[in-house]
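Q&A FORM
Asked by: J.P.
Topic: structure of Galactokinase

PROVIDED:
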Amino acid sequence: MNKEELLKAYQEKFGEKGQDIFFSPGRINVIGEHTDYNGGHVFPAAISLGIYGVYGPRKDNKITLYSGNVHGPVVEFDLDDETVEKDDRFWANYFKGMLTYLRQRKDGAKINHGFNLYVKANLPSGSGLSSSAAIEMLMGIILKEEFDLDIDRIALAKLGQKTENEFVGLNSGIMDQFACIMGKKDSAIFLDCNTMEYEYKPLKLGDYEIIIMSTNKQHTLASSAYNDRVAECHGALEKLQTKLKIKALGELDDHTFDEYSYLINDETELKRARHAVSENGRTLRATKAMEDNDLAKLGRLINASHISLHYDYEVTGKELDTLAETAWKQPGVLGARMIGGGFGGSAIAIVKKDQADAFKKNVGKVYRDRIGYDASFYDAEIVDGTKKI
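REPLIED BY: S.T.
REPLY: Here is the structure written out as tokens.
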């Protein structure tokens, strides 16, 4: 998507020239799924698929939003309107929540006039590549830049999580927002969600590349079993806390969890907690494997992540299982697994570059035969976080 097309679309919609263009990436997660809200480690990266925003100031206090993807009506509200949007305007809440929480800050008074915003995504909605976090971080950076707000990127990520948790009603962790806004070209972020300590690690895959496989099955996490998983993990944590001084499941290793698992005594909670603990361990080992250039081990751990998400966390489903399990059988594949919340969305595969075309064709055929419609495949370029362009 080029600047000229975006500026033309803005002018056609609002009848005036747009002022600035911003881009906010989606994210993939190499490994570490459903560990962020359990205080564990994650290993995400920002990708070249994302959401563009064209901003133009207004002289009144109206905010007008238009999505070039939704093609619904222009969503309009006053600057001080903090109500949650319903029905076909629901997508606007990811913008509105960020605006609301930034205006509640000390320097929020600087946001003292309205604006028009045209948004267009080449990131498939509901793809599990974190379009909602990309939107939140897009709004955060636009408001920071245009109104000269004194707020750093990590604080914006936390406000994005607050928007998701309190404004939208999804009990998600910090990973998605952090990855979208803190991304670094050709690197993944090794993040401890318990302490917020992080470091960038080069994604050195040699002759391999990451391919994103979209199920093209929509998933809306807020209405799915996502919040149930959060509650089940919390239930297990509370039982473990009767004997252990821990604040999060991510503090446990496999051995300690095994010794104290008798405290949980509930099949569902036991499986959920076991995934959180084992996935955290896999993330630590996978990051070390990549540093050691042991890509075969990295691939096996990625496969093991999918198995745990299937059997212990139960968030995969027929579509994601078909993609991952078919990918495992293809030549030149190191590993594959579902990413994101689950129940649809996307998976990733690490595939030898010279086998990529055959991989997409073969996996695509099996998927269509089994599921009845096509999957989509994207090559993932790893890029910088949300920015003005």
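FOLLOW-UP: The CA atoms of residues 40 and 251 lie 7 Å apart.
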